[in-house]
Fold this protein.
Amino acid sequence: MAAIARTGPAPGQTLEVRATRDRESLREFLEQDRLFAAYAICDLEEREFPRTRWGVAMDGGRVVSVVLEYSGLSPQPLFVMGDDAGVTAILEDVIHPRVAYLAGLPHSLPAVERVYRVEAGPPMVRMWVDRATFVTAPPMATRLMPAEVGDLNRLYDLGFSSWLPADAIRHGVYYGIRVGGRLVAAAGTHVISREAGLGVVGNVMTHRDHRSQGYAKLTTGAVTAELLRSCEHVVLNVRSDNPPALAAYRALGFQEHTRFEERIVRRRGALWDSITQPFRRWFPTARSPE
């Protein structure tokens, strides 16, 4: 599936930048690269949409850039896609969190850096699978129920006060493996859109005492199999510097779609930048603590 073309305004034209709640036009734009934009497409669902803020840049009435901010604790997710000039304009005028967790294609980083200081990080890999390419895993994992959220959060090392709420299990798909009655591995979902036929696998974790036994593959395989009953595509993210995870997901039939950036970004402040600007030519790689 081809990535969206990078287009911009014609000479002499000015981009129109504004906030929007028009799900139809947003979906039409995002579907141009549905595998990369899977999270954003799922966030158009009724359950997720109230938590989102959207900005668009338009050229001659046509959407050329989209920025999504998902509300929550800082740093909140920030997704960018499309024309670079449009991305910068939206971040300048419409969507402007102080700190955010950015997801965007590599070509978008310079556009973001005009407004934000971007922390370093390894490239991420977006992988995907469908019914034709999926390789079934042995059925060793069992479906987790909302009542098991305490066990799940302890596995994630989140303590007894649930960061992951029971509703996440109730509305999502979670599978786990128990050894001696103890939950030692699990995988689940970040978001699902039955309407768009997309599911996003995430929260894959194996307890450190039980790693290298294939549990991540087994739990991820169980979640994926369940999602593919109603979804056309299932996607997940993995760090490019994690060969074991990449191999496990490839063994399930997942294929690489694209490499992208997930980075912490901090909004540039006029006062701080005016102080540091004279020193940047001597220390171009230095970043300020905040």
